[in-house]
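pls design
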């Protein structure tokens, strides 16, 4: 009986370790994904972060299924994907401008200064294709991104 109990405990610990490794390997929520396409080709809600002001340089697109609140708590694991100035650099603290596609008036995508959706923020919302020619509170200081499908007042700089 003692042998069976030890075997069960060992198996449980091993399964927990494997499961936590899979969770840790995925920095974005399952409903947010990245690629190097532009915001004009979005078939879902999306945010495109650009390395340079004025939508120039390398960029990466984050797309969302648009169900509730979903995002990326820490941009450190992501890089600028498309060709151009900044390609391969970390997205965290290097984005200068942004474009988005938003599905409804109440939907938004917010870029935060700190990881974990905290600190000063820039919010893109109100119309279908809001844009920030030059980010304000998160210019080259951006650490997380959150898509929302409900209207929220946050004290962010608003871009529409």
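designed seq:
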């Amino acid at each position: 009986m003692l042998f069976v109990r030890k075997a069960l405990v060992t198996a449980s610990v091993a399964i927990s370790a494997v499961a936590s490794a899979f969770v840790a390997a995925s920095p974005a929520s399952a409903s947010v994904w990245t690629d190097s396409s532009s915001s004009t080709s979005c078939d879902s809600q999306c945010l495109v972060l650009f390395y340079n002001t004025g939508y120039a340089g390398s960029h990466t697109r984050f797309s969302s299924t648009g169900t509730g609140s979903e995002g990326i708590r820490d941009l450190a694991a992501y890089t600028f994907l498309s060709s151009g100035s900044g390609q391969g650099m970390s997205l965290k603290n290097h984005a200068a401008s942004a474009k988005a596609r938003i599905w409804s008036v109440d939907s938004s995508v917010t870029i935060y200064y700190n990881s974990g959706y905290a600190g000063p923020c820039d919010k893109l919302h109100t119309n279908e294709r809001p844009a920030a020619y030059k980010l304000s509170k998160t210019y080259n200081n951006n650490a997380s991104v959150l898509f929302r499908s409900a209207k929220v007042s946050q004290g962010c700089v608003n871009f529409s």
